[in-house]
Write a structure and sequence with these properties.
Strand content: over 45%
Order of helices and strands: HEEEEEHEEEE
Structural class: mainly beta
Distance between the termini: 74 Å
Shape: globular
Helix content: 10-25%
Number of helices: 2
Number of strands: 9
């Protein structure tokens, strides 16, 4: 009986070591490129990121963060646009934002611009964002951001984005 236990332990322990040795660290965000988000019909989309940037008063300027911008505008209608801005650390090759990070209001911002629409202001309430560097000029991000009414925090929409973001070297117009 003792020999059987010894044999089982010798078989199980290396297997556990192998499994643990092959796992990724908890801090590393992994995003696969299956099922990428498509741009809605009738919209133009851009997915850009900026190194050493910040967003303030509608403008991207020099700063200390990596800023990811998912922007879309209605084709032929320059005044209707929407998007998501994600602020991530400027160092590292991956990052994860938790629901608490998003709800804090500093890491993720959503916007909707339509001067002639009947629209109620929303803000990010929670969700998650994972990003990983693909190469020197591209990142792959997966975001699920729950939006709620600014007036009472009632959830009204969820944004899903899974897309490659290309490096922008200037504060170019998004459209």
């Amino acid at each position: 009986m003792q020999t059987l236990k010894s044999v089982l332990l010798l078989a199980v322990i290396p297997g556990l070591v192998l499994i643990n040795g092959c796992s990724k660290s908890k801090g590393e965000a992994i995003v696969d490129d299956a099922n990428l988000t498509e741009c809605e019909a009738g919209w133009q989309c851009r997915y850009l990121y900026y190194n050493n940037a910040r967003y303030s008063n509608g403008t991207i300027t020099s700063g200390n963060d990596r800023l990811f911008v998912a922007a879309s505008k209605a084709s032929g209608l320059a005044t209707i646009g929407k998007g998501l801005l994600i602020k991530a650390p400027s160092s590292g090759s991956s990052f994860t934002l938790t629901s608490e990070d998003i709800a804090g209001g500093e890491k993720v911002t959503s916007y909707f611009s339509c001067p002639t629409c009947d629209y109620t202001a929303t803000k990010p309430l929670g969700g998650s964002v994972k990003g990983m560097r693909v190469d020197e000029k591209r990142w792959l991000l997966e975001a699920r951001v729950v939006l709620g009414l600014e007036s009472n925090n009632k959830p009204v929409d969820t944004l899903h984005i899974k897309q490659y973001f290309n490096l922008s070297t200037s504060a170019e117009s998004l459209f």
